[in-house]
From TrEMBL:
It holds the Pfam family Zn_ribbon_3CxxC. One of its GO terms (biological process) is protein insertion into membrane. This is 3CxxC-type domain-containing protein. It is found in: Membrane.
Amino acid sequence: MVDISQLIFDKIESELEDYSVSVRIQNSSRLARKFERGYKCKLKFDCDECYRNWNSAQGQVTIYYYLDKSTEELEFNAETYRQQCSKCLSWCQPELYINELNRISEQFAHSVINILFGIKKKSNAKPTESKMTNPHQKDKCEACILGKCSVQNEKDNLEELFGNLNLGSQNRNYIDSESESNSDYSDEYY
Ligand SMILES: [Zn+2]
Ligand SMILES: [Zn+2]
């Protein structure tokens, strides 16, 4: 697991600035059982041990978050996951593409705006094109091992917290770029 909260903080904050939502990075232990959103993400890997490099279209980013509706405060943290080198079997940290980080930050910020204010913002950013057709190697994907790969659902008790706040449209918002994700979802988080 690789913490990328700091890498997306500025973009999320600037997206939410106009709405006066304050943003804070929170440590994961406090957020581990709050809400989460999963995003597919293109990642690049460079193995330090054997210098093999590869791209993965099946990278994953998970954003854990908590929204205080009364104070309009967002706490979040974000992580991505390592993959195992198929040549030397070392676990490698991903490099992130800036356009992918921006896309995910924007999508997430738009979801927050929708939850808080019921405003649906269109996103222009498209996922990075990928022609890779190799099957996903689940045993070499840390997200798979941790049960985070393709997670696109969030904890379903939003309604409990926020009442009937456009939850239907919120769901539609984040399905479009994640069409290859399945709805595998487990209530058990570590
Ligand atoms: Zn290697
Ligand atoms: Zn995976």
